[in-house]
Amino acid sequence: MEIRADAEISSFSRSLFAAVSYGFASMAMVFINKAVLMQYAYSMTLLTMQQLATTLLIHFGRKMGYTKARGLDMTIAKQLLPLSIFYNANVAFALASLKGVNIPMYIAIKRLTPLAVLIAGCFSGKGRPTPQVALSVILIAAGVLIAALGDFSFDLFGYSMAFVSVFFQTMYLVLVEKSGAEDGLSSVEIMFYNSFLSLPFLMFLIIATGEFPNSLSILFAKSYSFSFLVILILSLVMGITLNFTMFLCTIVNSALTTTIVGVLKGVVSTTLGFFLLGGVQVHALNVTGLVINTAGGVWYSFAKYQQKKSKVVKLVTDVEAHRK
């Protein structure tokens, strides 16, 4: 018991770094992707480029000795195939929603992920949430509904894409946590498998949706714009960074911690979203709903922190009792 308590204390710094890194990368990625999609509407092609860049970076990094990630193992690849499918479905629907939904509403809808994670946890035998957690999640959902009623730029297709993205993100986070724990894979290795396995699926999608080859010709035409090239390269770099930090945070902490970090960074993103990249038409219902949604997110995070803190206190008490 004493060794276990010491291990928990020593891992705090790594857990904090993973959570803060993911929060920053996640916040930056929303704005960068929105900026790219305002000039380049081919979301599937953008996602394909991000995954290809990730695959090549890890592959050559391993060849040059910069990472100790193991090579491709087809047995592991088959096990992680569902993870890759859910991840790409999540990002694909999220990018599609960003084309029609403003950033504050997009973040508000994505805050429903903790609700979906908790529901998935109940079905997987993790038990029922505490009253505070349950009430905070209800507040988040109520905020989304009220904000949507006051959204002048309401886009049914965009909203639908965002809700579907929440479902796939939930399944993806649960699978990442399970895969990292059971298979003993590092965050870099899971990221490599995820990116590599996604490429055939994404290639099929950009052809099936009609993006290819028009998306490439427009990409080459826009490559003469320095400002576009800068945000495109930033998008590719941040895509790699977000993948890594998300896997790291989920493995080092948990799927639930990753969603909590997402909720907290959403407070800053929502505020900035009112003014950046086109902004939002302000309406009393919309602002009220977003405030309620944000308050629910903060309450949820506080409730989960208190829950985790009580477990640590119990552990320390057990250690003291053991010493006596």
TrEMBL record:
It is found in: Membrane. Its main location: membrane. InterPro entries: Sugar_P_trans_dom, TPT_transporter. It comes from the Eukaryota. GO terms for cellular component: membrane. This is Sugar phosphate transporter domain-containing protein. Residues 24-301 form the Sugar phosphate transporter domain. Keywords: Membrane, Transmembrane, Transmembrane helix. It is a multi-pass membrane protein.
